[in-house]
Write a structure and sequence with these properties.
By secondary structure, the protein is mainly alpha-helical. It has 7 helices and 3 strands.
């Protein structure tokens, strides 16, 4: 398990859930997010990396908030004892990035729709490709005048 792949798959799960529930707030349990991300890996690989994956989920939520992809009604913490994040929703930047239609994806639909199905809907490679697109769109959104 590479940390960058786990980060990208966690971004996929978090943003996919926020997109699905938009404009409503979403609550997250990091153990559940870690379990969803684990579905991309072999069970043995997941068992060996479970604690690390939970930490990556917490840190990813914090990063998405700091990078302004998410808004939250309550502070987002990445301390080890934190198990949940509550009151999370897409920011305008996050919604715009997820509503974009990438030419590179096989499906011609908004990238958020690709992430909606989670593990069942998008394969690992499609999820990784979608997240790379979303993060690059976020950079473009920030650099606009």
């Amino acid at each position: 398990m590479k940390n960058i792949d786990m980060f990208n798959l966690t971004v996929s799960e978090i943003l996919g859930q926020c997109y699905k529930n938009f404009p409503n707030e979403t609550d997250f349990d990091y153990r559940q997010v870690a379990h969803q991300v684990s579905q991309y890996y072999d069970k043995s690989e997941y068992r060996e990396n479970y604690v690390m994956l939970e930490g990556i989920c917490r840190d990813t939520m914090s990063w998405l908030y700091q990078a302004d992809y998410l808004w939250t009604r309550f502070p987002v913490h990445s301390e080890r004892a934190t198990m949940t994040a509550n009151g999370i929703r897409l920011s305008p930047k996050g919604l715009e990035a997820l509503s974009s239609m990438p030419n590179s994806l096989a499906q011609k639909k908004p990238v958020g729709d690709v992430l909606l199905g989670g593990v069942k809907g998008a394969g690992k490679m499609a999820a990784l490709e979608a997240v790379k697109f979303i993060l690059s769109e976020g950079v473009k959104i920030y650099s606009r005048p």
